[in-house]
Specification:
2 copies of one chain form a homodimer.
Chain A (H helix, E strand, L loop, with lengths): L2 H7 L7 E6 L13 H4 L3 H9 L1 E6 L9 H8 L11 H8 L9 E10 L5 E3 L7 H11 L8 E8 L2 E7 L30 H18 L7 E8 L7 H5 L3 E4 L3 H9 L3 E2 L6 H11 L5 E6 L1 H8 L2 H20 L4 E5 L16 E7 L12 H4 L5 E5 L1 H10 L9
Parallel strand pairs in A: 1-10, 1-11, 2-13, 8-9, 8-10
Antiparallel strand pairs in A: 2-12, 3-4, 3-6, 3-7, 5-6, 11-12
């Protein structure tokens, strides 16, 4: 279902929607045969499950393990196969660099070139982040014709390059040859109209090579994933909501910003975030509330710590419900089973609570319980946003 | 989900996948109110069902009864609506004729024409297969300009025609008028660039008419379904696997070959096939293991014999599991209820076993038990391949 279709049906309302996203919530059974969510004591989520409807969603498609970016886009109703974010832009989001319209962003690597100019190490021996910072501050001083240069440290050998200047196209090939023994490539346009950008990037590359010439092993740079801030319909345009994000981590704040959400100041603890929600509840009508640590502990393989974050989140539900939201969606962006120490393809438990839910027979919020729920076992994640809007009485009838 | 999408995510791994396909496994209740699979004693499959995940898949779409070709394509991740095999090629696969790239293949019928050259019987009175063989051997001697001619008996009035020669297009209309009282049509191109093929086919038709002139009732031929070996991505290209087929029947070996599987020598008994699997287990990483007789007995309406084949297959599961496969998929290509004596549209029970399955509550491998499983009640069959690859840790994350 295309966003353009929903857009035509969206209508204004006074109702408020909260998306409580426990990152990586889906899991796999631990020693006792229960998943993290099944193991956690969640009386408040269970109550929502009982009153609302449950199921499992699929972020992309059966068997596909999503990155955080695509998984979040799905949750907010944007088909991530259609709405793909360039890697340069993702890198910018990841370090909270404020990309502007018209900027082109690329992922950069410091690399080592030999005396013949050929790449001998694509990662410059994984230099320290401190060295990276020194080098980035040198590269930031480069001046190019008709544009501004921003060079920001990411981590170790990785950095972000942003060029700002009117009319720069991002339709450029990578300069990273992907193998050692070849020289770094020149920038090359992939379509007509990128000549100005080619010139700007090559100008930067030539000057960077000069600046870094005595900085062995980090004596050159490789660039990948040139991209621009995408021109997507904002959530406001698409769904008629006034959305705000309550997320502590840059990556998620970045994605929210891409979709036109207001990014609220908040802390990294769930309780800080809830304070923010309470404070701003009157000012917006869609809230993206992001709990990061379910995912972090899943990635660490720390089963019991993940359980604990779920329980902490559950504890705060009564305060959330006291705000009288019209629709509450509780789910994750994807699964991060502690057992796998990483994202996975497994469907993600989800519940929708509103006074217009037709209750199913699910009484507990857990993976296996949700299998019996009316949202189904593999609901396309993009459907959650539509269902939230419907339950908030924010969608008109289709056809007469 | 397009194969091209999966192709970008596929990554190499040491893991091994076994697809155990019990042809036509899905059934309908017999006298005791149980389906063939429900009736069969299957302790080993039930154990896999308990440890893994279950559900039912839908080969094509709700209500669509698939032929063996499309149903198998779906199982292997190829959308059979997009990847259509021409009928000529299917006929060649069915009799194990080694079609080469560039060949054009057509289904042939011997027919009867009257003194005015009009078709009076499109099937030449269903001549015997023996007569067919004699006539095919005569037609095989036909020489045409710039090409080779192969004419092979299929059965009764049906034969296969293959023309081999550079640059022959298969974009030709059928010569079969589909009704009696009209003359067989001349070959006719359906697009530019088929002139050479038109000439070759008409040359063949004229000479066939001559050869058959005194062979009443089989005194002419009709051709349908001109087609070529399709240029599809092989399973190796698409999914990064090294696949092998352990199938006794030509049709299934043919389909496997179309997808780039290695066709292993084996016998027609399930036990022979298991011996082959054991012998070759180190040499490949994807195995298509085809059990034919569940379907054959279904087609015969022989409920109890179908039950018995399921039990025989179940008996061999411990030997299969001893090989330590990483992922086992057990399912059928479609349903063949004994009650209907033919293929049907009913969803097909399926289970996936791997150490990364999130168990559901299914404890028995049967149609009704599978309804509660986490694969869902109508999983698109093409998703099975993706899920198998995911469980084998052979797919990269989508997006960062």
């Amino acid at each position: 279902m295309e966003i353009e279709f929903i857009q035509k049906l969206a209508k204004p309302a006074e109702t408020k929607i909260v998306f409580l996203v426990m990152d990586g919530i889906g899991g796999l059974p631990g020693e006792e045969g229960l998943t993290e969510l099944e193991k956690a004591k969640t009386p408040n989520l269970d109550k929502l499950a009982r009153e609302g409807i449950c199921g499992l969603h699929q972020p992309i498609a059966e068997g596909i393990t999503p990155g955080s970016g695509p998984a979040h886009l799905s949750l907010f109703g944007y088909d991530p196969v259609k709405y793909q974010v360039g890697r340069g832009i993702l890198a910018a989001l990841g370090i909270n660099f404020p990309v502007q319209e018209g900027d082109i962003a690329a992922r950069g690597n410091f690399c080592t070139i030999d005396s013949q100019g050929k790449v001998s190490d694509r990662r410059a021996g994984r230099i320290s982040t401190e060295t990276n910072q020194e080098l980035c501050s040198l590269l930031s001083q480069i001046k190019i014709e008709g544009g501004e240069v921003f060079v920001e440290t990411v981590k170790e050998h990785r950095f972000l390059l942003v060029l700002r200047g009117g009319g720069l196209s991002a339709d450029l090939a990578d300069t990273d040859p992907q193998v050692v023994g070849q020289a770094p490539r020149q920038a090359r346009s992939l379509s007509a109209g990128a000549d100005k950008a080619v010139k700007a990037v090559n100008d930067f590359l030539a000057k960077a090579k000069e600046v870094l010439s005595d900085k062995h092993p980090a004596n050159m740079v490789l660039l990948r994933g040139f991209s621009q801030h995408p021109a997507w319909p904002s959530m406001g345009e698409a769904f008629g909501v006034k959305p705000a994000a309550i997320a502590g981590y840059p990556m998620y704040r970045g994605i929210a910003k891409l979709l036109g959400m207001e990014i609220l100041d908040t802390g990294e603890e769930i309780e800080d975030q809830l304070n923010t929600l309470e404070k701003s509840f009157n000012d917006y009508d869609f809230f993206y509330f992001h709990v990061k640590k379910t995912d972090s502990y899943g990635e660490d393989g720390n089963f019991s710590a993940k359980v604990k974050v779920v329980e902490q989140t559950d504890n705060l539900i009564p305060r959330l419900m006291k705000l009288n939201p019209d629709v509450v969606v509780v789910t994750g962006d994807h699964s991060t089973p502690s057992l796998m120490q990483g994202h996975s393809w497994h469907p993600v438990p989800a519940l929708i609570w509103s006074k217009y839910c037709r209750p199913d027979k699910v009484n507990k919020f857990g993976e296996r319980d949700c299998l019996a729920g009316s949202l189904g076992k593999r609901l396309p994640a993009t459907a959650l946003m539509r269902l939230a809007l419907a339950n908030a009485l924010r969608l008109d009838k289709f056809g007469a």
